[in-house]
Amino acid sequence: MTTTDHDDAELEKTGLPPVAETVTRPLAVSGIVAAVWAAGIGLTVLTTITLLGWIAAPRGALGTGLPGVFRTAVGFWLMAHHAGFTVPRGRVGLLPLGLMVLPGALLFRAGGWIARTGRVRGRYRIGVTHAAFALAIPYAVLSGLLALVASSSAIRPSAWQALLLCFLLAMIAGGLGAARTLVSTTNRAPWVAMLGLLPRRARSVAAGVTGATAVLLGFGVLIFLTSLLFHLSEAKNLYDVLKPGVVGGVLLVLIGLVYLPNAALWAVAYAVGPGFAVGAGTSVSPSGVFVGMIPAFPPFAALPEPGPAPAVSLFALAVPFVAGAVGGVFTIRYQPTEATEAAPLWGFVSGVATGGVIAFLAALSGGPLGGGRMAVMGPSAWQTGLLAALEVGVSAAIAAWIANWRLARRTPPSGQAPLDDDQDTEELEFEEPDPVLATVDEPLPEGVIPLRKRPASDH
């Protein structure tokens, strides 16, 4: 990039390189532009994949003609946001959670762009909320219109689910993207620094919930893959029944990958206790396995044999208690307390919040797969969430009490910094915020310390 004489003069005068001005737009305009960009890129990717499948597969499978292919791609785009649809034989709500990665990543980028270019006013936390709303509202309206476009006599997407779930995904992913942009000048790891935007106690609870949920989901993936490894012959038999061919085999593997988060959450439901259903009147839980005919889909080969639950699978019952221990330690690690009796309370609160998160994810992981027996698929959200809250909450309370007690032993003598100001809980430091969010002009949130502004040069 070349410099002008004006830039050289400014460099010679101030001793500092010129700072490029950030172009700002009205927040509503930035939100609309970002929403159209995120939806357009997602539709382009899915339309390309659908078109390739239409060329390789029988022509009637993915629509008739290019308009039908586009309508199918819009349906896939809505499915990626977990919006269900109705077919002549019933409703389909068992959708892959892995597809949400595509729109989630695009909305994350869009939220960061809004934070950089939109005229966001108010405190930093409020600014992040405004950026998220500016993206979520037009994105949800656009998704509702696309649901009407994709509707046909054979498939009718749920417009209200498209509006609600697209709004929630845009709020969460876009808000995280805006927050990530805000902390881009911090000297801490980005995801750790983002916690600094929360109040101190909310920060500690969020850290505990994140740690416990990550442990549950990680063990869920491990349980599923281990069970599938022990049933590879059954998976091969199901694959042979389908006879997908080369192209179909690749698509089948991709479908299995995008359903991996669903399988992990079903394994979490098994570890927590209630288990899950693979059809009306069926149950897969530690108390026993009662299944009938199952869909010819290779991941279902991981299901245990009907009868008593395998003894080795009962070790999975320890998973929620391990997750609670991690969550309790994280909760106290981020915010110790001088009141010993309060530590178990905050640990239990993080466990209950973890149960709420698991209940929400369990509800998304299941759903009907048409009518008849397949109308009931997946775990019970309220049962899984309730037992997860109790199991994770109790172990988190115990772990939080022990962790706080150990920290209290290292409390400095009276007259020095109290436990709440423990040096382990470092505060965030931000550089001059103007180059990042030029229009956010209110003070930083509690716990965020701005670095010194660059001194003006006299020469």
From TrEMBL:
InterPro entries: DUF6350 (IPR045931). It holds the Pfam family DUF6350. Keywords: Membrane, Transmembrane, Transmembrane helix. Residues 412-459 are annotated as: Disordered. This is DUF6350 family protein. Residues 419-434 have a biased composition (Acidic residues). It comes from Actinoallomurus spadix. The chain crosses the membrane at residues 27-56, 68-87, 93-115, 127-150, 162-183, 204-229, 241-260, 267-291, 311-332, 344-364, 384-403.
